[in-house]
Amino acid sequence: MAKILITGGTGLVGTKLTKLLIEKNHDVVILSRNPSQKNEFKWDIANNFIDEKAFENIDFIIHLAGEGIADERWSNERKKELIDSRVQSANLLFENIKKLKIPLKGFISASGIGYYGAVTSEKILDETSKPGNDFLAEICKKWEAAALQFEKEKIPVTILRTGVVLSSNGGALEKMKTPVVTPLGSGKQYLPWIHMDDLCEMYLKAVENNLHGIFNAVAPEFHSSFSFSKTLANSIQKPFVGIPVPSFLLKIMFGEMAIILLEGSKISAKKIEKNGFSFRFKTLEKALDSFKF
User: Fold this and answer.
1) SS3 of 42, please?
2) Which residue from 68, 145, 167, 284 has the highest number of Cβ atoms inside 10 Å of its Cβ?
């Protein structure tokens, strides 16, 4: 049994992961801006404050905190919020771990496949591929650098570069379940995805099996926007129209953020599989069938 401190513990992934960790007999404490439960402790990133009681006897930190990438249009102010909510929070955790001399067994951080940039190509990208040079890549590079500083204190670091998380309640899938399902843009861009249960199992593996390093957290099956939409339409029994929503329309609606929807590459899951991880949901069809629509 380990004691685990989670940031972002009340978010979509954090809620499900907390439940799984407790089911596996781990002790979970959560950092919250407004703590209301017995296992929640206050933190205030803007004022560099964390309740030190949160760190008592902890073995691992799982860092999920961060403003939602696709929640608002990307103004300059919003871009700063997206970076700061990830980087400053990690820096604050690091300063406290160093100050309190806590011998963590591991620091486990979320990141995104945006690390590789919003590009579409037939090349399969793995963890050794170069980072992109757009805003998504900038977020992820700074996010990961903030996580990797824990290695200075001889603390093992695990980073999960996560694709689109499919969940039965909320998240991206909720927005995709439209009355008529269509591809977006060219329809040829890839949409790397992962089932919520597989993602949570990866975090569990990092805690229980010393999974250290940087890994892509995506399912092994590749889908373009076209094939993803067609599979989804079939699963939720809604009409599929193969004429994509035009790129210019998405750019009008979402501004620069539309790039998330319009570009995407094939991302390899081989490294985490070679490290002993078995996906429960290898295919999109099986993943969607697991949800009760």
Assistant:
1) strand
2) 284
Helices (H) and strands (E) in the chain, counts: 10, 12
Q: How close are the terminal C-alpha atoms of the chain, in Å? A: 35
The Cα 89–Cα 63 span in angstroms is 9
Confidence of residue 293 (pLDDT cuts 50, 70, 90): low
Amino acid 17: pLDDT: 98
For the chain, the C-alpha Rg in angstroms (whole number) is 19
Q: Which pair of tokens denotes residue 268?
A: 């390899």
pLDDT at residue 169, rounded to an integer = 84
pLDDT in tens, 127-163: 999 999 999 999 999 999 999 999 999 999 999 999 9
Say how far residue 103 (Cα) sits from the centre of its chain: 26
The SS3 of residue 6 is strand
Please give the backbone phi and psi of residue 125, each rounded to the nearest 5 degrees, phi first.
-95, 135
What is the rounded CA–CA span in Å between residue 64 and residue 82? 13
pLDDT tens digits, 30-55? 999 999 999 999 999 999 999 999 99
Q: What are phi and psi of 157, to 5 degrees?
A: -115, 135
172-208 CB burial, b ≥16 within 10 A, e <16: bbeebeeeebbbbbebebbbbbbbbbbbbbbbbbbbe
* Structure tokens that stand for 52 in this block: 């030190």
Quote the tokens at residue 273.
């599989």
* Alpha carbon distance 110, 161 (integer Å): 6
Nearest to 67 by CA among 11, 115, 117: 11
Mean pLDDT of 249-269: 95
**Structure tokens belonging to residue 62:** 């799982």
Range in 31-40, 56-65, 106-115, 142-151 the model is least confident about: 31-40
